[in-house]
Amino acid sequence: GTGKMVGLIGNKIEATDLEVVLSQQKTIDQDLYDLALVLAK
Prior knowledge:
Blueprint: E1 4-9, E2 12-17, H1 18-23, H2 30-39
Antiparallel strand pairs: 1-2
């Protein structure tokens, strides 16, 4: 593998090293997470 992840940053598609991706902790809104669980049923 290349050790990269592709994603949208702003309005550009960018490749980012997985080390960078995994080193950054992200949080999500609990209400949005709960809504996603309901909609996924």
